[in-house]
Amino acid sequence: QVQLVESGGGLVQPGGSLRVSCVASGFTLDYYHIGWFRQAPGKEREAVSCINSNNGNTQYRDSVSGRFTISTDNAKNTVYLQMNNLRPEDTAVYYCAGRGTAVRQCMLDSSRYTYWGQGTQVTVSS
């Protein structure tokens, strides 16, 4: 049974850091893309970042580039999103999603992803 489970969300002050994790089970990260997406109240879901676990290719949305870093630990079947210099507008439920593919470059397009986690809340507030 394929499953993605996020953890690590919480409350952090503006300018602070947080690392969210996505543990995959039922498949190995090899030849999978993992994406991070977020949805704030009253807003549409948006892509944050993605990674090709096989070749390390990564993509970031412009507003998080330079502040967020996506990485994998294939031995632990886990993908991380390190978030630094957090802003109130980063407040959202963060979801990870998986896509099995041989395509080299991962994509910031939620419609491409098959498996989804339940989400973890990240709140940036003073």
Topology:
Layout: E1 3-7, E2 10-12, E3 18-25, E4 32-39, E5 46-52, E6 58-60, E7 68-73, E8 78-83, E9 92-100, E10 115-116, E11 120-124
Task: Write structural notes for this entry.
This protein has 126 residues and is mainly beta. 0% of the residues lie in helices and 49% in strands. The strands form 2 sheets. Strands 2, 4, 5, 6, 9, 10 and 11 form a 7-stranded mixed beta sheet that branches. The protein has a 4-stranded antiparallel beta sheet with strand order 1-3-8-7, with no helix packed on it. A hairpin with a 6-residue loop joins strand 4 and strand 5. It is globular.
Number of E-state strands: 11
Poorly predicted residue ranges: none
Largest sheet: 7 strands, mixed
Oligomer: single chain
| Shape label | globular
Q: Tell me the span between the first and last alpha carbons.
A: 40 Å
User: How much helix, percentage-wise, in residues?
Assistant: under 10%
Strand-and-helix sequence, N→C? EEEEEEEEEEE
Count of helical regions:
0
Please report which band the strand proportion falls in: under 5%, 5-15%, 15-25%, 25-35%, 35-45% or over 45%.
Answer: over 45%
Based on helices, strands and strand pairing, what is the structural class? Answer: mainly beta
Overall pLDDT score = 96
The value of Rg in angstroms is 13 Å
